Amino acid sequence: MNEKNILEIKDLSVIYKTDLETVAAVNGISIEIKHKSTFGLVGETGAGKTTTARSIIRLLPAVGHVTSGTIEFEGKDLLALPEEEMRHYRGNQIAMVFQDPMTSLNPVMSVGDQIAETIKIHNPQLKNEEVDERVEETLAMVGILPSRKVEYPHQFSGGMKQRVIIAMALACEPSLLIADEPTTALDVTIQAQVLMMIKELRDRLGTSMLMITHDLGIVAKICDDVGVMYAGEIVESGTVQDIFEGKNHHPYTEGLFGSIPNLKSKAKRLNTIPGLMPDPTALPAGCIFAERCKYATDRCHKEHPKVSVNGTHKLCCHLFDNNGCRKEEE
Amino acid sequence: MSDNHEIPLLQLKNLKKHFRLNGGAMLHAVDGINLSIREGETVGVVGESGCGKSTLGRTILRLIEPSSGQILYKGEDVTKISQRKFRPYRQDLQMIFQDPYASIDPRKSVVEVIAEYMLIHKTYKTRAEVYNRAAQLMDMVGLARRYASMYPHELDGGRRQRIGIARALSLNPKFIVCDEPVSALDVSIQAQILNLLMDLGDELNLTYMFITHDLSVVKHISDRIMVMYLGQAVEIATSEELFNNPLHPYTQALLAAIPEPDLAMRDVPFKTIKGEVSSPINVKPGCRFCKRCEYTKPECEGTDKPLIEVTPGHFVACELHKN
Amino acid sequence: MEKNANMSTPAVPEIAAFKKQSQIKEIWRRFKKNKGSMIGLIMLLLLAFFLIFANLFTSYDAAITQNLSEKLAGPSAQHLFGQDSYGRDILARVLYGGRTSISIAVLATLSSCVVGCALGAIAGYFGGKVDSIIMRGLDIFMSVPDILFTMAVVFALGATTVNLVVALTLAYFTNYVRLVRSQILSLSDLEYVEAARAGGAGSIRIIMSHIFPNAMGVIIVNTTLNVAKIILYEATLGFLGLGMPPPAPEWGQIISDAREYMRVAPHMLLFPALAIVVTACSVNLVGDGLRDAMDPHLKT
Questions:
Q1: Chain C residues close to A274, C-beta within 8 Å
Q2: What is the pLDDT of residues B60-94, one digit of tens each?
Q3: Domains recognised in chain B with CATH numbers
Q4: What does CATH list as the number for C82-298?
Q5: Which residues of chain C are within 8 Å of residue A275 when distances are taken between CB atoms?
Q6: In chain A, at which end, N or C, are there fewer CB atoms within 10 A of the end residue's CB?
Q7: Residue of B nearest to A193 (CA)
Q8: Residue B16 and residue B55: Cα distance in Å, rounded?
Q9: Whole-angstrom Cα distance, residue A67 to residue A79?
């Protein structure tokens, strides 16, 4: 494992298996997250982003199974750890924030007590007064009056609840924070507040982050590296510069950028990607995007493309040769 | 607006909807909206959750009864007539709902959902004619006919939303309220649905009221945009004018908060506005936004701010832009 | 895209071909996975077979003809379940008694379901004063103990099949009112009900075509579980002497008769009691299975 990385996922595959069908949710993805940097995982519903995140903290639903791959966190393979040891990692060193702030808090416990509980679990040696102090510090850190710690979640607005959840996640100063669409349920102005807060805290505490989102705007604002996920695979990855300013792109990334209503453009119609994501119970043999791709050739439908690397920029498409440069038209 | 001689398709005059809560407090969901919509026009209504935009859409369609004010459809007052007398108007005034999962009865097949309105209004004599029309509608919204006998749970969000659109179109409406029709969909599907709505609008000469929380969505589809905050309109302007020259501090804040997929903006921090939307319960007169506004002055409180026409067609309700 | 590809398809015929079965099939598939419920269902079908074709194995005469010389005789080849204190064949009495008991229970369940659903639908959909009046009336009903209430009805009107059904209906319809009312309150907030209103649908159409079909799962499950309860309750009435007048057999009454001879002829008590236990158990198993199978949240 590379010294610079805090987390390395190699060739991870996850399936959901029920009596009726087997869903290939994640298919052989590799991700590297560097120390003190933020990796953005972008993709649409069903691309496998959340599954990837849940595999890292090993909280997959009962029907989910990891079929291959390793997830190394600071040199240790998390997938090989006994559950006992894994529990120590969860919350302490890897924390996760979920999408819906409405269901992540216990409605019958005061907000302060919930934060205190997290702190106590991870720091059993602390005295009650010290815990209390930490609770107040934590609330102040996310811009909520410490005196509100006696209130219950229903007295908080959506944005404040999400701040509390982020505060709880950061209370034990984890080295990796996984944020699964943390602002999707919030209004734009509140989203802006929460994003700014996440950015500020991350820089101050030196936390590494895995940011899962469908919003390329958030990626541009927060992330250092990006992986674009489609139907369980990472089709393109690289630094934000590679993705936002580079010339070569996977056709899916291109389509994704085209679909975003642009504030500056005057065009009336939006560019769309025709069709839908392939059925995850029966993925095509060739390129997973071939069905919807305007550049697709016979080869794309038959043969799965290999990853081509050009410096930090990785692409998984037949259009690009081994250096990640576009091939001449045949 | 009044210098226009033709009768607008739809006119709202000081429309209000107040809900009485347990304990007698009043929730001012819609608090005096004035708006006229011309035939063929698309008006975007933008605001954050709780600003009353959905209530406004439902009040216009009498799904929620207005508390006071008037709704004029083609110059006729339809505010006070009984639901039974309003029923014929429902053919002209339709709605596309936000949630493609909740807005379709899970126990009805696709064709049954699309046919329902036509059966209610007895548009056709036989069931075969109704289903024939349903099939045409499916073609129109880009839904393959093989889905006709499927159940909604077998389809994805984008296709379900197409069902909702086909249902809304089934009675040949003139005016459609679109209540966040794409906010539950993924970006690539969202673009497909927006294009479809725009095409249908041109093809069938529809008039839309497009309700959304996402300014970037509404930019492409709207001719004019109304920005709402706590039940009131704070700014109305043409789409281009609003994006190039937003005047109300709230509109400016909304625009500034959109994360743009552009690295040039990366290190420019968001210009965030402080605090959160205050409660719409027992609101006091005065500018609703003044507690969060950075330009707030003593005059902002006390009386409600009327919409003032600053430049032709650009209305704003703010102390800063009195003249 | 899809639009162009399908322009040429012929219209009506394929659209008219409905696939109504799919949901029922899906429920059946999930129901089959539950072993307990399948056992319950098989027992229930066996029971139904024996009750319906009781005259193939025995006759009604055997159930009421007294044969005092053979009273209290134990099980034999001729009388599989033995004979009672009047020498009547217990097998015949259990089978014919089952016919009466179960048909009363089923009828009472159905009528309490209809009455309760109607009242619940009215209360839930119209709300306001109508709701208050119905619900307060219901509170009064529920403040009288069930058993007292049914006893009063049977004493006043006399013990006939119809009166028993009426008494049981009055005791059980209250469950349905509350159930259906709460279902309607939660369902009528949904967007698809609003969508129907936006299309101009009236109250009756909305209730019949959108709310009831969606509340049906819960109602069916409750009804199955209620059948079991009413069978037991009806046996209780019979035991207390409020059931069908003798000599017509009925489960509760058979057990009541057997009580005195518990020590000398335990078979008299054993078989009818077993019949009640098996019936109630299998109905409950089926009901539980249905509840799980019909819950869309438990899709496995």
A1: 1
A2: 999 999 999 999 999 999 999 999 999 999 999 99
A3: 4-92+173-321 (3.40.50.300)
A4: 1.10.3720.10
A5: 1
A6: C
A7: B272
A8: 10
A9: 11
